[in-house]
Amino acid sequence: MPESHNPDIIDRIDALTDDAASWSATGEHTQSRWATPAPGAMTAVELAMNGVRPADISLTDPASDIVRLVGDPGVDRIVPLRRMQLWVGKDSATGPVNTGATTFLHRLLAAVRDGRYVAGDAERDHVRALLDTPDRLPVIHGPCLITGVGTEGSPASLDENFTSWFTGVLDGVAQLRQALAIAVVQELGIPSEAIDHIVVIPLD
User: What are the pLDDT digits (tens) for 21-44?
Assistant: First the structure.
């Protein structure tokens, strides 16, 4: 059995949480900078073996970027949701399990089932049946890339449902990290009035 790599992908998004989401003065959610692509590109999400990061891929030639990012000259698609797909290497099944990416996908499906991700009734029923049968759940091998679904399955920009959900995940992680930092400061006996702001620097 291939060696299993086991990074908790939700804990490996340090590079994103400082930029996870922007909030207006009224508290309304605005477009996150991570989901804003460079000119001529669309933003995908790369689920590497050691973490998750946004990745801009070409609008005109996305195939070459996908091949480069998954590390395989041939690619396959996994389409767990109508408007979201994962690109994996064609030969990835013989490689190591990407446990972090698999966990990420299963958490996403659970969000759909539980109503925390916008989906239609039919899609939610499909996901619920999938989660009720663990043997049918996809297992990701090797690095993969998440994109939206375009014409005839071509890669497309991520839709608002995904970007909203993922931004919420990033924001939640940032808040948890901030709460942990405050708890550590309190344990050290530093008075709250002596603290201007807290910057959390990942050490890994």
Answer: 333 333 444 456 777 888 999 999
The pTM (predicted TM-score) of the whole model is 0.72
Q: Helices (DSSP H) in the chain: which residue ranges? A: 14-17, 62-70, 99-113, 121-131, 160-187
Sign of CA dihedral 124, 128, 129, 133: positive
Burial bucket for residue 108 (CB in 10 Å: 0-12, 13-18, 19+): buried
**Euclidean distance between CA atoms 103 and 145, whole angstroms:** 14
Cβ proximity of 37 and 56 under 8 Å: yes
37-72 tens-digit pLDDT: 889 999 999 999 988 889 999 999 999 999 999 999
Amino acid at 68: R
